[in-house]
């Protein structure tokens, strides 16, 4: 049976439009208002940072934070939504300016670990065992500032502590090669999975691949997905698009390169991604120029693009395709795919 895909996004994807060069241009929505938007848009999974669940988390005592997490869980249940994961936001606090696990300060490294363990407790309360580790500042601005070998060891040790803290937690590493730091220590899915195999329980450590992050590394996101799938370690995807090696743009899925979007969906479809309940996550930003009333258009457009390209993936004539492959006629295969995408074949 064809996979029935489930979709997720994070509340930060309904943004106010601020960027490093300008202020907010739209009015904020409350978390409840954002939750109300999910089902009408065709989404059931909610991606969380720990401070999405518990706003101003550092100002809450542990029990108060868990009580707030239980309130959020009820809001999800009332709307038939589920939490896909919780990610500790380690890149906003002043104590993580020089990294979390890889900070040169022992005190700050301890803070990063404590924040991650707290995120695990919050994740339990909202109903998910999944923790995403986007290692945003685990890198360097100049290489001489840190011992790179020691930095990798420290990241692994931090993940080990998380695995030992909760026997059911699952860690999804989301690699990115740069931004906000110049050079990340875990820049690609290959690095992430190599790190996973070094942990105390590799069966609970896997990867999350974002389209733009692969492109920023100069790699093909569909190949990255295939690599993770070959290791049975693709736990989620964040689909979007990217116009070259620039800042992380988080464009609507397929808006820049439809052929790349086609191949990403093809890899997922051919490898039964989603059959075990994995989500198709979207991480797409609203254009800064968009009006308030269109704050969710990019999410709906990305989901519909996925579904339309999925139809193209499923309607490919495999016999014709295989004939071109058998004849090593890749020019004809290239034109067949292009014509199929344009509705000419």
Provide a descriptive summary of the structure in words.
The longest helix is centred in the middle third of the chain and has 21 residues, at 106-126. The protein has a single domain, classed as Divalent-metal-dependent TIM barrel enzymes (TIM Barrel, Alpha-Beta Barrel). With 345 residues, it is of the alpha/beta class. Helix 3 packs parallel to helix 4 (106-126) and helix 4 runs parallel beside helix 5 (148-165). The protein is built from twelve helices and ten strands. The radius of gyration is 20 Å and the shape is globular. The protein has helices spanning 31-41, 50-53, 62-78, 106-126, 148-165, 189-198, 211-216, 221-230, 258-270, 297-315, 318-326, 330-341, and strands at 6-9, 45-49, 82-87, 130-134, 139-140, 170-174, 183-184, 205-210, 234-239, 279-282. It is 43% helix and 13% strand.
